[in-house]
Amino acid sequence: MRPTLLPLALLPLLIAAACTPATPEPAAAPTTVPAPVRDREPDENVEVDPLLADAGIAHAVVTEAFLTEMVPENNTDSLASWTAPDGVTWLLATAKEGSKGLVLYDGDTGATLRDIGTVGAGPGQFSRPNGIAVAGDLAFVVERDNGRVQVLSLPDLEPRLTFGEGALVKPYGLWIREHGQGDFEVMVSDAYMAGEDAQGEDILPPLDQLDERIHRYRVRANGAALVAEATGTFGDTGADGAIRIPESLWGDVAHDRVLVAEEDVATGTGYREYSLDGVFKGRSIGVGQFKAQAEGLSLWACADGSGYWVATDQFKDRSLFHVFDRVTLEPRGAFAGQAVANTDGVWLHQAGTKRFPAGVFYAVHDDMGVGAFDWRDIAKALGLRETCATP
Questions:
Q1: Can you tell me the distance from the alpha carbon of 73 to that of 19, in angstroms, rounded to the nearest whole number?
Q2: What is the 3-state secondary structure (H, E, C) of 218-282?
Q3: pTM summary value
Q4: Please, what are the domains in the chain?
Q5: Could you give the CA distance from residue 363 to residue 314 in angstroms, rounded to a whole number?
Q6: pLDDT reading at 94 higher than 90
Q7: Whether the Cβ atoms of residue 147 and residue 133 lie closer than 8 Å to each other
Q8: Half-sphere exposure of 197 toward its Cβ, with a 13 Å CA cutoff?
Q9: Neighbours of 180 (CB within 10 A)
């Protein structure tokens, strides 16, 4: 092909056009990827997270025996342990978010053994599991968004039963009283609300509607099956005994006592003392003493009725664990770890294990993992008994 020849008169115009900078295209707006937003809990109503470093509370520091792997997507909430027939200690943790329901750890080392379950509403599936407790060879798991409690057998972790559907609105914590072989009384806290305001914040129900904060069930073996029966509800409706935001609870049969965490900071966070039949006993523990938020609690119990309560104050930087006398509920001291922070659930494994001959106290660490404290270290730091045989 022959080249096209341009007239010389056009060359200056073409050169000028070539040297004129082109008008730039408008820049595209940057694409913002939203950060994951976690489901807000009813108790997450403070604007500034309180810090133990600023609280000025005297306490001992106990170094953790181990910290598990931190997995942010789990949003770990509650813990329970079980001793297998071969003597191995299992530690089960609920994962409120992610693709699983539970995480299984080695209770002596903190090593992750496996994940359990998937997300859903079927047997062996979970939707925002919160509280967990072990009784006998059964694990009871509270599922907030399925409005139920699911029971798994141990060690196979196969689903055996669900109950509470249609009655539980926003269940969170539980305590189990074993009446005999295959006979359990289960108390479940229910943080139902009266809707949301214009900002999407939960509206607390009026006092006269707080009489169903705790649901009772009886779970029994019926041959090879398990059956559950609802046996009532309770909750005080007076200003002093009402539970505005419930979650954790634990009972002490020997002293006719059920302690229920009141997580409403505006009212005064602490633990309401109820009788086993659901009557407020006129006393709240830790109100004014707890500076962050009352969370998980557990009981170190001896056959003679003595022992200790261990209760969590959920500071963001490091959790503080208050110890109370089992009988009098008088304070016996407080301790914190080197790292464990922002704790929801705790579990006290009082029986000796291969690594922890005097037992071990487990605490959720910042929604992502678990820390373990050797009970011997706690007892030494606070001048407590190591075993029930210790004077």
A1: 56
A2: EEEEECCEEEEEEEEEECCCCCCCCCCCEEEEEEEHHHCEEEEEECCCCCCCEEEEECCCCCEEE
A3: 0.89
A4: 60-195+207-382 (2.120.10.30)
A5: 11
A6: yes
A7: no
A8: 7
A9: 8
